[in-house]
Amino acid sequence: MSTVQDIAARILERVADKNPAADAAVTVSRESSALTRFAESFIHQNVADECYRVVLQVHVDGRTAAASTNRTTPDAVSALVTSALAAAALTQEDAGWAGLSPRQDVHTTGNWDEATAAAAPDARARAVRSFVDAAAGLACAGYCQTKSVEAAFANSAGQAVSARSTQASMDAIARTGRSDGAARTAAIALSDVDGAELGAAAAAKALAGREQFGLEPGRYEVVLEPGAVSDLVSGLLWQGLNGKAVVEGRSFARLGEQQFDPAVSLWDDSTDEHATGLPFDAEGTPKRRLELVTAGLTAGIPHDRRTAAAGGSETTGHAVEGGDRMGALPTDVRLGPGATDDLIADVERGLLISDFWYTRALDPKTLIYTGLTRNGVWLIEDGRLGSAVSTLRFTQSYVDALAPGAVLGVSRSMQSSPRAIAPMASGSSSLLVPSLRLASWNITGGAAG
Amino acid sequence: MFEAATRAVEAALGAGARYADARVMHSRYESMTAQNGQVEDLTQRDTVGIGVRALVGSSWGFFAVPDLDAAAARRAGETAAEIARASALVPGADLELVSTEVRQDSWTSACDEDPLSVSMSDKGDLLVGVTATMRQAGVPLASALYQIWDTEKWFVSSEGHRIDQRIRECGAGMHCMTYGEGSTQRRSYPSFRGQYGTAGWELVRSIDLPAHAERIAAEATELLTAPLCPPGTTDVILGGEQMSLQIHESVGHAVELDRILGWEAGYAGTSWLDLSKLGRLRYGSDLMTVTADPTLPGALGSFGYDDEGTPAAANDIVRDGIWVGVLAGRDSASIAGLDYAGAVRADGYARIPMVRMTNVGLLPGPDTLESMIAATDDGIFMEHNRSWSIDDKRRNFQFGCEIGWEIKGGTRGRLLRNPTYTGIGPGFWASMDMLAGESERRFWGTPNCGKGQPGQTGHTGHPAMPARFRNVRVGVRA
């Protein structure tokens, strides 16, 4: 079997044969994904696939085009090259072309666990069995997944990098019929996914939420658990801390300004020990740690080469496939921890919220979102957790929620979430976030009416 | 192609499966975006592969590979069976698939002008031209997009199915944005994500993007200074495009049988519907009759056979306001005690077929948009979706539109910006008292319906027309 590096080199040679004047960049990844899905406490979907992803971009006579395939045979490679070059000849001039990435070394070759890459379906099914058995007889639903990717990038400017990564994750709920409780984790190795621990945690949450009452709309102090926090972080990155959004003038972000509370620090680092994203981006630029928010100060914006050129800055190595439409996105995001794990003790009256659901931006500039709670809400009174609350709808600016003075606490412990900030990126993503205590959250209704 | 699928099915049976099916798929995709008079992105994708489904006992396994040679096809079948055996470590109840007619057939969607054969420079000129027009009309950001899918699939089952299909789909759209003090405004045509259908490039020609570019740019600019949609409770008239989203989110997903059975509880969610009430639950007013009909010519959710080999057929979902049907697959229907399937599709060879909407939409009513406005003393007409959010049981929704018009004394008046409305599904549908007729019905296409893990993107169609709803909460904001 050819290596992904060999295939990438072969494609570049083929482009040079057909048009020596063409700039070309190619990413070749060999990906294996297996996901064991369960509901009503049985495995109802159990899938796996192996594939190649080959993405070729060419720039000829001022025109740019891309083509992709899932095959690496000589005929398929030839067709890919022909298709990309033909499209480039027919399309309009590309005034925003920012050139190819220069030759640079990557800082790591990725985090890889051989056992996870080779995990058999039985291993995932056993994790599911453990979750279900630990869930106190409650109905369970969710998944256990293993993924591996080996990827190589090469371009006609001499850049050639490769890396590989694995990820294992479990995300599931236990259900009482009146309430759901969730538990989730993501790691580099399947051996770090403990189905029994997650099943017991989900069941405890579900059981604690059985008796629910409705709550009047209004502003409430909230403690957001990591599931809900990951939604906030995703919203900030998609809509605002995004080079394309900044260049197009629709971002809230103002570099160098204290837009967030000093307790907020946010960064992306595909070179740390928890990273499951690849250490180079879709343009072959090696990734480095990028500070996005430092002690509340907006410190950095993810860019690819195109948005960086348009905005007068340098690429930060965050190009993703499809980024021409969605912008540059990070893959290994961390929201900095705080110093305590008791965020509830000082809350006089507020809400503990596990997850947000179906959140959508009403306005990208103010980052006003609407969405609902999911998998549990509890009233907090006089520093103690009280009754469970039924599902709530909110309409809230994510920027205002994290504004200076609005963050009253950040937990020390962090949770690794399977949520992908950049699902279109080759490889996986990792997201590590703590819980947050926020001064105000605008509840605008309940799911019942 | 049938040979590879047959080998895979035989291999799965040889490895212990009691049922197996295989789909070979060749999918071609092309899209282009333009922004502010420049082509922004041109993408072409070509994928081929085989996906095999095996049933061992009551447990499923699925495996997919991009190779079609004999060894790869056999390995795909054997591995699908191996995965099914692993599923049996956490088994479900006994399972029999509902029967479906076994056919050997071929089906091709209608296509007058092959969209992949239209000159790429012509297609680029269209997008560049309309975005340049919008820019010249003064908006800071103008975008346009077309997408084309050309899918061939060959389906074989251990029951004897042998069906090939070719489905060509395409569509296009454009939007522009304007920026004011602390807010943005957006206008789109013909829909917020474009209009799509199972059709050729004639669909794109028919929507005539150039004729609407200046108008939406002017509206986006005018919206910046328009008054906010006032908060309160009022009568709401929804345009046909917004109605298609209303149907998709608060009816289409709610009647998916896998959601009703709890199979999507861990991710997409469940449904407020209880199967024990099928046939007698009131979903909406008497004006509400919804069908799921994959036979509608040109609609985006049309096909000859679903991905289990079930022939396309129309089903009633809501009849005269009463919930009477679901979207089902052969396994979910069996478990629910129903005798029909036909709504199972996958978004590519590498994904397992699952319950998806076909063309879920309203049958026409007796009214017109004009008559609705004339009959409304105090209300708001909202059009073109801008945001959508709905709970995991598909009851509580809050939708935002790009544009609203105040209605006073039966007359459409001033523009309103940031119109939103919110409600609870059955109560909202029960308040529908006027519904436009056939002349205003369009088959709106949704090309990006997300569902499943790993995620799949479904193509769905929604026959829809303007309608009026009474006493709706509007203007919710932060």
Mean pLDDT of chain B: 97
End-to-end distance of chain B, in Å? 55 Å
Task: Output mean pLDDT of chain A.
Answer: 95
**What is the SS-derived class of chain B?**
alpha+beta
So how many helices of chain A? Answer: 10
Which overall shape of chain B is indicated by the principal axes computed on the Cα atoms? globular
The spatial strand order of the largest sheet of chain A comes to 3-2-1-4-5-6
List segments of chain B where confidence is low: pLDDT < 50 over at least 5 consecutive residues.
none
Number of strands of chain A: 18
- The portion of residues assigned to helices of chain A is 10-25%
Unreliable runs of chain A, pLDDT <50, ≥5 residues?
none
- Name the helix and strand elements of chain A from N-terminus to C-terminus, one letter apiece: HEEEHHHEEEHEEHHEEEHHEEEEEHEE
Report on this structure:
The complex is a heterodimer of chains A (449) and B (478). Chain A has 449 residues and is of the alpha+beta class. Chain A has helices spanning 4-18, 74-90, 114-117, 121-133, 195-208, 226-239, 243-247, 305-311, 323-326, 398-401; strands at residues 23-39, 42-60, 63-69, 139-155, 160-175, 180-187, 212-213, 218-224, 266-268, 290-294, 297-298, 332-335, 349-363, 368-381, 384-389, 392-397, 407-417, 430-446. Chain A has a 6-stranded antiparallel sheet with strand order 3-2-1-4-5-6. A 5-stranded mixed beta barrel of chain A has the order 8-13-14-16-18. In chain A, helix 1 (4-18) crosses helix 2 and helix 4 (121-133) runs parallel beside helix 5. The mean pLDDT of chain A is 95. Chain B is of the alpha+beta class. Chain B contains 10 helices and 23 strands. In chain B, the strands form 5 sheets. In chain B, strands 1, 2, 3, 4, 5, 6, 7 and 8 form an 8-stranded mixed sheet that branches. A 5-stranded mixed β-barrel of chain B has the order 9-16-17-19-23. In chain B, helix 3 (120-136) runs parallel beside helix 5 (213-223). The longest helix of chain B has 18 residues, at 70-87. Chain B is globular and about 70 Å long. The termini of chain B are far apart. The model of chain B has no long low-confidence stretch (mean pLDDT 97). Strand 3 of chain A pairs parallel with strand 2 (38-56) of chain B.
